[in-house]
Input
Amino acid sequence: MDNKTQKLNLKREVGLVQAVSLIAGTMIGSGIFMSPQSVLYNIGSPGGSLVVWACCGLLALLASLCYSELGTVIQESGGEYIYILRTSGPVVAFMLIFSSVVFVRPASVAGIALSFAEYAVAPFYSDCTPPVPAVKCVAAAAIIVLATVNCLNVRFAMSVQVFFTVTKVLALVVIVIGGVVMLIRGHTDNFEDSFENTNLGISPIGIAFYQGLWSYDGWNNLNYVTEELKRPEVNLPRAVLIAISMVTVLYLLVNVSYLAVMTPKELMSSNAVAVTWGNKMLGSWGWIMSVAAALSAFGSLNGSFFSGGRVCFVAAREGHMPDILAMAHVHRLTPSPALIFTTVVSLLVLIPGDFQSIVNFFSFTAWFFYAITLSGLLYLKIKKPELPRPYKVPILIPILVLIAAVALVLAPIIDDPQIEYLYVTLFIFSGVFIYVPFIHYKLCPSLLKKVTVFLQLLLEVAPADKNL
Output
């Protein structure tokens, strides 16, 4: 704890290939295998569902381009947290980190882990629904395994990410090829009058977007590890364009394939769309799609862990979390305390976790803070045009994405108000009541210092400096 102790740095070990894998590998997870039926159910028509998937991809791409400018102006890890801290101040930033650490990030990890577990155990329960305790035990095991991997070695964690990204892209390509074969054979009935029965209500469209955007979640993951990215001013916007464009095209083609193989009714009634597709297209080899979906979710979970641990790490470095979370292992140079903390909270969220509820409330909270972040970009563009900007986006883009973000937050509340959204909003603002005594007035410093020293010795960690 001596101030003269030499501090550590996280190494810049993420190149362009790893960056693309981190974005695409996190985005292509459970969503494309589990959300299509929810999107179709809420929007009501095959044509409408394809429009929602395309719009979600476009929105993710435009938002990520805005984040690319933020990431090259503020070249620090931490994503939304660090951008809000630099533009909106510490109170709003703490509200974000409080929500993120206690709910948003753990909910994301728990949701992906649950979907991985459902696909992983599905082959063993072919005649019935898998028991919930079995699913949650497998999900917990996946969380613990990937937490261990990310604590041990950054390079190995990124190698795992690249491997699973390649695997899941190949799985989606197989689905696309199957759909093309069916279309060539004339299975186009589901695309005739494809916009019939479309739900144009505000709430159905908003919920459909929530479900679709869950599948695109991860578009901002590279901004969480900017300090570990080689040449961020070049690789950040380049990786974003490559990864999100590729994922959007794949998602559209996969949904076309689903609709070429299954009727809308079959698709909406399926608990695991990819498995149903595999059973109809591959027959006795249908289990392959269950394995592919599980591997896809596992890779996405790894990406969420890699970036999620960095949020705690950066917040602790800025004084908004306990000091121990801002430390890195003295030999492995990984933010292991932050990763362990994220693991523990994720396991707690997993206990009562329900996939659909997690998706809706995660999306509501996430887009609330995306809107604040984009407001910060507009502030920097208007008030501080002199800041060096290696990469710029036209001001119209953040304005459009901000309008979309506000609409996504307000649409379900206005059209179909639910008390749960009030609870989530109160939870977000409750961060202020924690900030004042514990962050602003720094209550209980002596107790925290003793705990920090003990954990520092136990975990073999030391304070880490910014890597700029």
About this structure: The chain has 19 helices and two strands.
